[in-house]
Amino acid sequence: MADPLLAVEHLSRRFGGLSAVNDVSLAAEEGRITALIGPNGAGKTTLFALIAGFLKPSGGTIRYRGEDVTGEAPHRMARRGIARTFQVVQPFAGLTVHENILVGAHLRHPQREAALAAAAQVGRDLNLGAMLERPADTLTVAGRKRLELAKALATEPKLLLLDEVLAGLNPSEIRDIVPVIRALCRRGITILMIEHVMQAVMSLAEHVFVLAEGRIIAAGSPAQVAADPHVVEAYLGHGAAARLGGRAHDK
Amino acid sequence: MKGLVPVLAVVAVLAAVPLAGVSNVTLNFLVVALMTALAGQGWNVLGGYGGQYSFGHAAFFGTGAYITAVLQVRYGINAWLAFGLGIVGGALLGAVVGGLTFRSGLRGSYFALVTLAIAEVLRISASVAPITGAGVGTLVKLDLHVAALQFQSRAAFYWTILALVAVALIVTRQIERSRFGVWLIAVRENEDAATALGVNATAIKLAAMVISGAITAAAGCFYVQYFLFIDSGLAYGSWISIEALLTPIIGGAGTVFGPLVGALLVRGLGEGARMVTGGEAPGVDLVVYGCVLVLIIWLAPRGLIGALAQLRGRLKRPAPLVEAGHG
Amino acid sequence: MLSPSILIAAIVNGLLTGAVYALVALGLTLIYGVLHIINFAHGTLLTAAMFAAYFAYRLLGIDPYAAVFVLAPAFFAVGYALQRFVIGPASHGDDRNMLLVTLGLAVVIENALLFAFRADTRTIDLPYAFDGIDLGFAFLPLPRLIGFGAVFAVALVLWLIMNATDTGRAIRAVAKEKLGAELAGIEVAHIYAVTFGLGTACVAIAACLLIPSYYVNPAAGNAFVLVAFTIVVLGGMGSVPGALVGGLVIGVVESLSSLFFGESLGQIGIFLLFIVVLLVRPSGLFGARA
Fold this sequence. Notes:
The complex is a heterotrimer. Chain A is an alpha/beta fold.
């Protein structure tokens, strides 16, 4: 099997005495969707911040396309082809949707005309075509999520880090955006997504890592992970797996 | 190039003013207003477009002024060259200050404080250093020849400062339409988000500061040539730091014409206040400036131009549509 | 060379001056700790209070130390009103706007004072201004000694307010977590205004302590406020002990550098220190938030 596009090895990050991320190793295979799940406070967003360069690790390495990129500045990571979305979406206020995407498009297109065209295309790909000239802050939550995605996509990334892109969406909005994410994968973009919405994780992800209290406690296909008692305990508490297993046995 | 039409039109109209036979008093008022506008245009690049509020832009104004004055008076350097070097000096100071502050990650209040402190350090230094004439200041010899960048007619001074303002307008306009400008605005709105999209925020802010310093320094250089005198209070005093930020904020920060509109308005109000109090009241004009600043932030935070744009927008577009479902 | 007694005298003088610097800085750090903005109007409010103290003595014959009890509440009210009815509403909750609004206020106040009272420097002459303790190598004037003690008294009172009253607890809650405090029913606008009022009251007390041994003109406060900024940054934004210690340190630094380098350069020394601290360790010696 080829080298993974992204390989995180024994990554740690301490804040004072607290280990937010503790000896985490994971990999994202090229062209696939990998999911990172876990209860709240597990350290998922910290892990993203480390991978994208917003935080420097206390230990461990991050390898992208075989190269050691540990501790590189975020804008350089973006230039390498690693794009990330933020959990709390904040469009560039006062700018239109088109202008928002333009910021991302300019990474690969220094000339304004080309960048505008590229940005418009990305907008249309994500069903924002009709909104392009509207101020970004008039979008709904679902629209803003798509705009966040559009901005990141405009940088023409190879690896896309999605931080809870489905959070705050209602079921029909989720149903609409899942195929969009799958389409990105088909285009060759590798996706690593933090997600809480289990239905989406199960249907989208080919490989899942489970993070709890800063450590990886399980990894495998969605089905494997769902059946793992450690995972159940991480979400539902100590002894839950046994209780659930016992009840199922009784039935 | 068609984006420059409004700029060229405005400049053309302003250039025609002396030909319309206005009084020297009016012309003097306009010269000072344009000089204030130029200082504000410098601030606007860093503060309006970049969102980094400097409270010590006098540092650039004064440096440009002193370099121009001292090079002529003490080293006999040609006025035009000294002028150019003054602008370069402003740019260099911008690089140094920007390099120090942005590399340290200073933002917001801290950045405002540091710039304030730097202007103060320069002011105190200039008030004691022999090379700047210490407390007495530096006097540039009257030499009404073009070679010495001094003119017989006030109109010539007017056209000079107008030319500088025009250059700054064009530079601002070009920034707006360039990748640098888009990225600068993105850094202003959300630095982290911009960084995630590949923007080197530190480099962008530094570049903005260099440009900003050069433009405001040019205003200082002009001041020396017009008034032929500079001292530490005039060069580095808080009055110019305040005017440099006031004019874009009032006119419209982050717009091409904001500083110009703001300068005309602010200077106009100042003159008005002086006329009402019979010219005997020190500080009245600044009281007016301060009140206007507070009122503008309160009622029209995007400045006059921003307020006009909002009004026009509200008349053109229906109330913001909320996207329903797909869109 | 300099004899140790001159050095000690300079240090002692520095401590006495530093205490008043600390009081000014205390108000500033309190406001920053809660509202998270630098109050650029702080210096001009000090100047205004100094004028008030001056006129209280000149026109009404009120001793500055007695005036404290009148001016402190009065300026508390002024500060409260400014924050509640001008700064708060004008800023629309934006930090950058708050900076500008306080700057605008500073310009208005300073120049209104200039317009009203011209630029002349005024002083008052207290009959006991030259009484004091003679240590042989140094003479400690009574007013400055009172000032030194008063600062610690004020710090104590502030500490009591912060820790033993409901309002103080509310202030600390808002400083720590504004949204949470709001959800718990605390009216943030009111708390902001109370904090601003307390900061302004500190400045009024400092003014009364300064006026016996200092001069007043419309620019007087500015000299203090830049020093106060330095102290707040050095001691840590929002840290009360930091402001106290920082004030004393700065007082001594200024005194010593004036001794070695002369008055003006002494001032530059402080600003350079300020810039260096900001660049290297903006969170200061005691501070938490950067």
